[in-house]
Amino acid sequence: MSRSEKGHVLLASLMLIVLLGIASMTALYLASQDGSGVSAMKEDKVAQQVADAGADFVMSWFHDPVAAPDSVAGLLVKRQGDSISGPSFFDGAGRSQFIGTVDRPDVFFDAANQADNQAVNDSPGGFSHVMRGLGRILKVKMYGPLQPGLLSTVEVTATTSDRRSIARTVQLQFGAVTIPSVRAAVQVGQTLGAKQAGAESPVLAHWGDLRVMGDLLVKRVEDLVAKSHAAPVTGQSYGEMLSAQDRWSDYWIGGTVFVTSPSPGQEVSAPLPSNIHTHQEPTSGVRLDRWDYEPLKKLARQIGRYYRLDGFGRLHPLGAKDSEQGLAPADVLESLSVGSHQGLVFIDTLDGEAPRQDNLGTLVLDTDYFEGVLVVQGHVVLKPRGSGKSVPALSPAPEGTNSLGARVPVQLSGIHMNGVLCAAGTIMLERSTRAYGALIVGNTVTAAGAMVEVWYNADLAQGLFKGLPVVYRAPGTWLAKY
């Protein structure tokens, strides 16, 4: 090979090395740029998640009003409704109580304002403490819903607490759970008790009213609970007291009160305690809370559990085939401990249609303890198999006040049901039962020597049901704004 040919090969080799070097440097540069882009995307995602967590933090104010900033606590309670339907977030036309706009919101916090920053971030229950310093809320806006039927629109701008402090804003809408409030310990749609010996009313109510659409039959006048502001606030059964007294119990009876076996020397028509209000029908009427079939069925399919009852008393979940054996109620409804909440459980009629006299099945509730909201479109047999649980409870506030601090903490023992039992048909007692919450019965309550004793949970009057959301994220409304 000549000297000139060797020179050309060397030059070509040098050019190849230079080109490979440029390609390597380009690849390294592009890789570094891609790494920065991926890192930026991750940081942006984290900032978005912090803002999303801020929206959940705002939603928690509805479920725990005590934790909400004082300046907005009054805006988050139900301010609509009436004496018949109870408190609500919506007026009679279905319009939300939140009516603001994005420019003039109902609720507005700006962390640039020291007081607002303290309220949403730096208070003991504030966002930065909840997030353990991972992020802070910059702004909160809550205003009217963008879609009819929803409760409100919420915008939260939040920032990460890292070196770059990226801020992002998310927008979503809240819907409201529309379970009617419960304003009495026990509500019965027909006559309660019968004139046969031993068939008198088997129901006793503490801390709330007993409302009966028909007549009420009791063995003695002394079996009626007298109302007294000096009555003890304890978990004692009336059978453990010298006389049956309570601070909050009134009787609202559509018909009259019959005394089947008056005490010696006492007339059948002996005077009744002043808290017994008879002949309320047709006026002024016994106000029973209406838990209508279709709305509750729809709600259970959205946020709860739905079962259909068969003729053998077994439960079939939504979508199950008729040929399947079904589930034993105890396997579905047993709560193993206090706080093990079953949520909203809707048990449908035999044919899945609105309740009639000919399509009501019978649910045997033989759990030791049930905690939840149980809606049965049929009859219910109560036969708890154990001694129940010890449940912490709060008495109602003194009449004329709504102060949470005025409610007396009480430990209730032997509780078998903690929540609400609503039955379209008849409740039949095979064993004595103690409940904290409320009973709603379409027909009546019967027993043979057993009793049901109910301590009313005053939270139910505000439409607050433990274990169920007050509000929820409306599906399909989430949006990352910027």
| Number of extended strands | 30
Indicate the percent of residues in helices.
10-25%
Mean pLDDT: 89
The description of the largest β-sheet is: 12 strands, mixed
What is the number of independent domains? 2
Classify the beta-strand content into a percent band.
25-35%
Radius of gyration: 31 Å
What's the N-to-C terminus distance? 68 Å
Low-confidence stretches: 2-12
Shape label? globular
Structural class: alpha/beta
- Helical stretch tally: 5
What does this protein look like?
This protein is of the alpha/beta class. It has two domains: 51-177 and 469-480, no CATH class; 186-462, no CATH class. It is built from five helices and 30 strands. Strands 7, 8, 9, 13, 15, 16, 17, 18, 20, 24, 26 and 28 form a twelve-stranded mixed sheet that branches. The longest helix has 61 residues, at 3-63. It starts with a helix and ends with a strand. Residues 2-12 have low confidence and may be disordered.
Please tag this protein with its features:
482 residues; alpha/beta; 2 domains; 12-stranded mixed beta sheet; 6-stranded antiparallel beta sheet; 5 helices; globular; disordered N terminus
